[in-house]
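>> received
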Amino acid sequence: MMRVLILNADYPRFLTWLYRQRPGLENESYAAQMAARNASLFGVADFYSRNFAGLGHAAMDIHVNNAWMRAAWAREHGLALSAPPPPGTPPARDAVPGWVQRAVAPLKPMLRPLARKVGLSPRLDTEAEQILLAQIEDFKPDLVLNQDLFHIDTRLARRIKQIGRPILIGQTGISPPRGEDWSVYDLMISQMRSVVEFFRGHGARAELVHLAFEPAILDVLPPPPPQQFDVTFVGAVSADHQRRVAQLEAVARRYDLKLFGSGLHTLPASSPLHRCHQGEVWGAAMYQALRASRITLNSHIDMAGSDAGNARLFEATGVGTFLLTDFKDNLHTLFAPQREVAAWRDPKDCLAMIDHYLADEATRVAIAQAGQTKTFAAHTFRRRVEQILGCFG
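>> returned
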């Protein structure tokens, strides 16, 4: 049996939503805040840790940028810590004009080292680092899975490695920061082949490990709602998703597209997506929005290139929704196109497929059911945890 620690960070916008949902949560115990965070079902929640535990390992999560959970842990362990500000402070990124975000999007990998030096990149302050290291000392992990290479940079990763010499695994689904020495990690994993090759080219062991779905969430979600939406999209529209924006705008001009997500402030006022916006949905509400859709759309971030592998592939199919996704060279290794998901190659093709599948309910339902069956068979967090452990014999 191993002791496994999963490090992650949450979107500031999600944290604002979480603590607004339950006023006073920030003053509750560490365990109560962790339970509320996991019950939201947002992101990977406790899906990795519960599956490590299901295989007989002791597992724990730390959300490294949650200042209120950090304060609760410090308080309960007799450590001094500055009081964090009340939840609800708007993320600084929202103040950056949309045209600036669109202009710098292609340059992000090169700009990240500079951004970190001048304090614009996410990072933990000295006090937060000290509490994190104390939490790690307390848990004494044998294996650490770090899912945030920005808050936990390689400098901090080396300090973590010194605490009992755990196996250290890094995971990222976007282009990693340049100019870092990745040798501190025993393994790097990503769902993007280009990222795996980047790490290998920089002397690190790296493997392709895809994202996943947690079937147990179906036991705690409310009953499926009626399929009241013809076409939906759930996710961000931003400077990093210019191909996605072009596709969704084409759909919005013909259909009553319902868009659930963030980033509308980065789009020109003339974009038809503004009238489609239904607000943001997190965790359980996101899954319910997917289930309320006859068709839900997927389009990968621009940097994904020819690779399929984002979370929506598994979230949508996992809850049994018909998924119309963008074609990628490796899609067939995950799902059978036109049998388990449908795949479009350009906006015109996407519109034709929406027409076809809205009119053919029987085929749409059959594909949705086949997609869910494939996800349950091949794309669960249990399968991913087994794959990760298999990398170490």
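>> The two ends are 13 Å apart (CA to CA).
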